[in-house]
Amino acid sequence: MTSRFTRAAAAGAALAVSAGAFAACSSEPETTPDDVITIFAPQDTGQGQDLEDNAFTKVIEEKFDVDLQFETTTWDGTAAAEKRQISLASGDYPDAYMLIPWVDQFSGDELVKLGGQGVILPLDDLIGEDTPNLTAAFEKEPGFKELATSADGKIWGIPAWNDCYHCSYPSKLWMNSAWLDTLGLEQPTTPEELRTVLEAFKTQDPNGNGEADEIPLSGAGGVSLLTYLLNPFVYTAEMYSNAEGVTPASLGAVDGKVTLQPTRDEWRDGIAYATSLYEDGLIDEGTFTQNGEALIAKGGSAEGVILGAVGIMHPWFVPLAQEDRYTQYEAVPPLTGPAGSNAFWSGGGAGAAPGATFVITNRSSEAKQQKLMQILDFMVSYEGHLQGEFGVEGVNWVRPEEGDVALDETLEPNFEVVRVPTEETLTNSWGPIAQFFSDAEFRNSQVTATDVDTPEGYERRFFEATELYEGHESDELFPYWEVDVTGETATELATIQTNVENFVVQASAEFVTGVRDIESDEDWAEFQQNLTELGADRYVEIYQEAWDASK
Question: Can the keyword Lipoprotein be found in this entry's annotation (predicted)?
Answer without folding.
Answer: yes
